[in-house]
Specification:
Length: 393
């Protein structure tokens, strides 16, 4: 069964083509585009490449396209990417302006170009559907809650992959299976030994998630992907009173405040240098104090959320790092884990320094808590769910 996974990031377009089922899970092709402003030309270019390589010569060659949709109003889980999904994306386009319009454009483009392939969406919020109400609500009036304003959580496919892979690496097949089958079986009861994991997805967008025995207990991201940790150019957590205050004092309207919080904030806003962690680190090394502050703030936020989840889970067996920064920055990983010896976390500096973009355990042999770097593979999670969806529907 050939499944193409389309990952329409806020500034990038990545794709992976899988052959699922039968002989197993084979990755047939992958590629991507950076600094994307329009998705349709990228999709055309990708289809050309896949045709040239003989993977996708005509419509019949593809069973489905899977989409990693972000936030749907009144809709989550794994569903047919039809008019209902477009309506759900549209319903929350103001909340996820960097993501929802991109997916709507992508889904429409595939509908036109490959009408015979099924289109299936797995929402990023699906992984957080079992988070306790106490953790997913905000203390706001009922009329606001009725609008759907609550904590959702994002990067679900990435954190789910990390949950599965970490459990496999620790030899915990019971937890790996539970995580892998979560959307089919639900969490059910679990009576094995605890596996309390803090998963750190640190990239252009970043989030920290607490995962107990394969099931998420919360996320640093809340109502929108502009919350929790500082993002590349989008604000992280911010006191709600800051928005009306800044509007009044700067004489700007709410749309302008929204634009500044979505495009001129986060690591870019704080550093004044760039939205790219590599540029910011270079500037910090050269003595730029604002750049150093941006990195310090990112690390402080990661530790803040990680600490919160350890407290809520009542312990910690594993920490995993994934995505662009998490996979490639040993310095950041060691600073996140610094001074945690009393909690059982000891990083092996040599293993940590040697690990860039590859899967590895980076904790010391005598570290009670196991620390891993796990290259992101959100696309595989999507392909597996799409395959299951097609078999069931
Ligand atoms: P996205 O959320 O757009 O998919 P990625 O997971 O690709 O993001 O991560 C992009 C981020 O990873 C950028 O901030 C980039 O600077 C950072 N990154 C990539 N390589 C390195 C590196 N070698 N060291 C530090 N940061 C890196």
């Amino acid at each position: 069964m050939k499944i193409l996974v389309a990952n329409l990031g806020s500034t990038s377009f990545k794709y992976r083509l899988f052959d699922m089922g039968g002989a197993g899970e084979a990755l047939l092709a992958e590629g991507g585009f950076e600094r994307v402003t329009e998705y349709t030309p990228c999709i055309e270019e990708m289809l050309g490449r896949l045709a040239d390589d003989g993977h996708l010569v005509n419509d019949e060659d593809l069973d489905a396209v899977g989409f990693k949709t972000v936030l749907g109003k009144d809709l989550s889980g794994c569903v047919e990417a039809d008019a209902r999904v477009l309506e759900a994306l549209d319903g929350f386009k103001e909340v996820a302006p960097a993501h929802n319009p991109a997916y709507a454009e992508g889904i429409r483009c595939f509908e036109r170009r490959l009408p015979k392939a099924r289109r299936v969406a797995l929402f990023e919020t699906a992984f957080f559907q079992w988070v306790a109400p106490a953790a997913s609500h905000y203390a706001i009036p009922k009329a606001w809650r009725d609008l759907g304003i609550r904590r959702y959580g994002f990067h679900g496919a990435s954190h789910k992959f990390v949950a599965e892979r970490t459990a496999e690496l620790l030899g915990r097949e019971d937890v790996a299976t539970r995580a892998r089958r979560l959307y089919v079986d639900g969490p059910g009861e679990f009576d094995g030994a605890p596996l309390r994991l803090v998963s750190c997805h640190l990239g252009g967008s970043s989030s920290v998630t607490g995962i107990r025995d394969g099931v998420a207990i919360g996320s640093s991201m809340g109502f929108s992907p502009q919350s929790g940790l500082p993002q590349n150019n989008r604000v992280g957590d911010l006191d709600s009173m800051a928005v009306p205050y800044a509007c009044k004092m700067l004489g700007i309207d709410v749309e302008e405040a929204e634009r500044q919080l979505n495009k001129e904030s986060g690591l870019l806003g704080l550093s004044g240098v760039s939205n790219d962690a590599r540029d910011i680190r270079e500037a910090a090394t050269a003595g730029n104090a604002d750049a150093a502050l941006a990195i310090d703030h990112l690390i402080d936020s990661i530790r803040h959320w990680a600490g919160s989840f350890v407290f809520k889970m009542g312990g910690l067996e594993a920490i995993s790092f994934t995505a662009g920064i998490g996979e490639n920055s040993p310095q950041l990983r060691s600073r996140v884990c610094a001074g945690l010896e009393d909690l059982g976390v000891i990083i092996d500096p040599a293993k940590n320094d040697a690990c860039r973009g590859t899967e590895a355990e980076i904790s010391a042999a005598d570290s009670r808590v196991k620390v891993h770097v796990i290259p992101a593979n959100e696309e595989l999670v999507i392909a597996r769910e799409v395959e299951r969806f097609l078999q069931a529907n």
